[in-house]
Design goal:
Blueprint lengths: L1 H88 L5 H32 L7 E4 H18 L3 E5 L4 E4 L1 H17 L5 E9 L2 E8 L33 H12 L2 E7 L3 E8 L23 E5 L3 H13 L3 E5 L2 H8 L7 E5 L8 H12 L5 E5 L4 H9 L3 E4 L4 H14 L1
Parallel strand pairs: 2-4, 8-9, 8-10, 10-11, 11-12
Antiparallel strand pairs: 1-3, 4-5, 5-7, 6-7
Length: about 425
């Protein structure tokens, strides 16, 4: 009987183990099915997020292309207007007329700044601006700020103090300058009394650049909103200057593109402190100083000019004649060929990049160089800021100048090219 009972117990235990194994197998199968369903759900969610990300990036690229095209069309008449104003300013006019010219010039400058800033924001959003990070000497950047904004602060009765050591940081020089210029410009604009301090300090393992003002301060509820486009908040410019509400939007996006942390500390009635946190690096090896050629006069210079916009063409021709240069102006390649023939060789060529009918000013430059057998100095003007256009102009050994043209800059460049030639 004992032997039979032991046998029955063993069979019962085996059956219990068998039942337990079946139960565990069912639980494992159910859990596996749950995990599989969850993984498929996550996979679908990832695919949806990827599609949404691609759609957003495509929308940003489309917005950038639209703004680029729109800005090109907007900058063309703006370019003609600024050139005409410059020619008018060179004429003998009375003080009242000169004051009106200055007002119109400031208005055009505001429009140009708005267009370019919107385009910059769009490019940053689309990831089209790739920072060129290299060693940057902080003192050089701060010295340029002092030179640029010192007179403006003095006119408003403010103190602009700049304190920077000999630290080097890893950054993009152009973007870093733009960030600090916007911060200092805002600080001066919204400060009625006292001053603005720009200081670079070593804080632990980083270099921190502070822009501190004694202005009205920013309420805590607006400290995040001020970085949004076109947000001006409750603050008013103390000098009545129109604020576009885009400066801090550019600051944040540029800082993010560079990987620099940006912080804000502000108290109403006590002022604000914007801080940019940078990583120090080793100094850049010294470069040999470039040899500068002194500019010469444009008197008697022979300038071949091709520009498809009639108003801009007439304004440039008037400008060149006002500089005592001989300008031969045409709106297309064939007209310029008939005007010049094959014997008259220009000293310099000023050509618009985009001409009517899909033509390009670079082709006219290449033709002139081929006919006369030497590299005639050439300046290509365009409102297109794309890298492709810049690469083509550089490859053709031409100078690139973006519209709207600044007459003083153009005159200095032409004088330099003529003296070098």
């Amino acid at each position: 009987m004992s032997q039979v009972e032991r046998t029955m117990d063993q069979r019962g235990s085996a059956y219990s183990l068998f039942q337990t194994a079946i139960t565990l197998e069912g639980q494992v199968r159910a859990r596996t099915e749950e995990l599989t369903a969850l993984m498929r759900s996550l996979e679908r969610s990832n695919q949806a997020l990827t599609a949404a990300k691609e759609e957003a990036e495509q929308a940003n690229r489309s917005k950038t292309r639209f703004l680029t095209a729109a800005s090109h069309d907007l900058l063309q008449p703006l370019n003609a207007a600024r050139l005409s104003l410059s020619a008018l300013a060179d004429m003998p006019v009375g003080p009242e007329a000169r004051g009106i010219v200055g007002q119109v010039e400031r208005g055009l400058q505001t429009i140009e700044d708005l267009i370019k800033t919107l385009l910059d924001i769009s490019k940053l959003d689309a990831g089209l601006i790739q920072p060129v990070v290299r060693p940057v000497r902080v003192a050089d950047v701060l010295e340029s700020l002092e030179a640029s904004f010192g007179p403006l602060a003095a006119r408003k009765g403010l103190r602009l103090s700049v304190r920077g050591g000999q630290a080097w940081v890893a950054s993009d020089l152009v973007l870093l300058q733009r960030i600090l210029q916007n911060l200092v410009s805002n600080a001066i604009r919204y400060t009625a009394a006292g001053g603005v301090l720009v200081a670079a300090r070593k804080r632990g393992a980083e270099i921190r650049i502070d822009v501190v003002d004694s202005g009205s301060g920013i309420p805590e509820g607006e400290q995040e909103l001020i970085f949004e486009e076109f947000h001006r908040g409750g603050r008013e410019s103390v000098d009545g200057e129109i604020a576009l509400g885009l400066g801090l939007a550019i600051v944040r996006r540029s800082a993010q593109a560079l990987g620099h942390h940006l912080s804000l500390d502000s108290r109403v009635g006590h002022g604000s402190r914007f801080s940019l946190h940078l990583t120090p690096c080793a100094p850049e090896p010294p470069r040999p100083a470039p040899s500068l050629v002194p500019p010469t006069s444009l008197t008697g210079a022979r300038i071949a000019l091709i520009e498809n916009d009639k108003a801009a063409l007439e304004a440039l021709a008037r400008l060149f004649h006002g500089w005592d240069a001989n300008a031969f102006a045409a709106r297309d390649h064939l007209s310029l060929v008939r005007l010049l023939g094959t014997t008259w060789s220009p000293d310099v060529v000023v050509a618009d990049y985009h001409l009517d009918g899909g033509a390009c000013g670079l082709d006219t430059v290449a033709w002139l160089r081929s006919v006369h057998g030497h590299d005639i100095p050439a300046v290509i003007t365009t409102a297109d800021h794309s890298a492709e256009v810049e690469a083509r102009v550089r490859a053709a050994r031409c100078e690139l100048v973006h519209k709207p043209l600044k007459p003083a800059q153009l005159r200095a460049l032409l004088a330099h090219l003529l003296s070098r030639g």
